[in-house]
Each structure stands twice: as C-alpha cells, then as structure tokens.
Specification:
This protein is α/β, with parallel strands linked by helices and 236 residues long. It is built from six helices and twelve strands. 41% of the residues are buried.
C-alpha cells in the first residue's frame, strides 16, 4: 500500500517543543508509519546548525534575550538562521529508503515544492547549489536544512511570507554577508493566510514526493500525542 503524506498545521510552537515532536515521530517512521509534515510558525528564534560559526551572531546572548529572541542549537546542517512569526516552517519527517531518494534529491524535492508554491503567487525563484536555499535574485526567500540519521530526515524549510526582516539583521544569515533576505510581502505580493499556505505547500510536497496527500490531522490530537523523553534539543 502506498504511503500517504500526513500533515498538520500547528500554529505557533516554541523551537524545543517542535524539535521534540518531530524527533518523537522518527521512531514511528522507522516502524513504517506514514511520513508526516509538520507546518508551523516559531516565536523569534535564532538557530545554529552543525556548521555554525558563532561570529555570525551579531548580538550577545544577553542582547538576544533583551530583544525576546531565543538562541537554540540544532542538529540540522548549515550555519546560522532565523525563525519568527510570519515565516512558514515545514518539518517533513520521512524515510528516504521508503521514498527511494538520495539525500541531494530529497533536499531538491523539498526546494521544488517551495518554489512551486511561490510560482502560484507569481514569484519566480531558483535553487542555488553554491548557496543552498531558494533565492529571488540575490535575496534568499526560503532556507533549507536537514538532519538525516539512519536515512530518516528531520528539520526542513522556512519560507518567508511576512516575517519582520529586521530580525535577520541580528545575524549574518548562513554566513553570507553580501547577500540579503526577502519575503513574499517584501516583494509586494499579497500574503495568503498562514493555514492556506500550509495546505497548499502540503499538497505540492506530496506531489513532489510521489505520495498521496492524507487528510489534515487535528493539531490538538498531534499536540496531545506522547513525546519521547529522550527527544531533547539543546538551547544555548
């Protein structure tokens, strides 16, 4: 039986809880359960990937705290990035073996789903191998970063719909000093509702992965599922 992409929109979750939810689902995916796409927003949060250079943080820990921005260490690849309200974050938890995908192909299919969604808004974007991410000209509109262990992927993408772009000035995004950040709103495009965008991206993601799209899961039931007590994210 073909697997379905289960999905849910969880509204706004703090970074640690979102990490624990997806890490908990790794066990389920490993047992053959359907892949699941968690879509949500985060409160203002700066995350440091496995290759992060602390010099790309422009503020001290105390200054981030004063501005209400959490700083978190994360298992995903990449450098420093920012999450916040107005940014749609997607965490697909899936077995690359079940999908019969290489890591590079998995990354690019996630990117293609984001790019296809932007096309529906009239925004042409491109993927960059040199500077991984989805770009409009020389400004990044979506960041991607994954952690793959035993061929099961966690983490995912962050699409800028209408975040406060000034928050990106508190970091050097992905260590790229001369390249900027943009958003759907910044490009003068009418921004859709967050849940509407989540639904459309879930459909496009299923298409890119060659899966049927499952019905939207009740977010209250997902949040009520027991968490693996060992699924911990480090907070700097």
């Amino acid at each position: 039986m073909m697997q379905k992409l289960e999905w849910t929109y969880l509204e706004t979750l703090d970074y640690e809880l979102a990490m624990r939810i997806q890490y908990t689902h790794v066990t389920r995916v490993g047992l053959g359960k359907n892949p699941r796409l968690f879509l949500l927003q985060h409160p203002p949060t700066v995350t440091l990937g496995r290759q992060a250079n602390a010099s790309n943080l422009r503020l001290s820990k105390e200054q981030y705290q004063k501005r209400g921005i959490e700083v978190a260490l994360t298992k995903r690849g990449g450098d420093v990035t920012y999450h916040g309200p107005g940014q749609l974050v997607g965490y697909p938890v899936a077995s690359l073996d079940e999908l019969k995908l290489s890591v590079p192909e998995w990354v690019k299919r996630n990117a293609r789903a984001v790019m296809a969604y932007l096309e529906t808004l009239g925004i042409h974007s491109v993927w960059s191998d040199q500077h991984p991410g989805v770009w409009v000209g020389e400004r990044k509109i979506a960041a991607l970063g994954f952690h793959i262990s035993k061929r099961i992927s966690t983490h995912g993408f962050a699409l800028n719909l209408q975040p406060d772009l000034s928050h990106f000035d508190t970091i050097i995004p992905c260590g790229l000093q001369k390249l900027g950040t943009t958003s759907v709103a910044d490009l003068g495009i009418k921004v859709p509702g967050m849940e509407t965008a989540a639904s459309e991206i879930a459909s496009l993601m299923a298409r890119e992965l060659g899966l049927d799209l499952g019905a939207q899961l009740d977010s209250r039931e997902v949040l009520g599922e027991p968490l693996d007590e060992d699924a911990i994210v480090s907070v700097a």
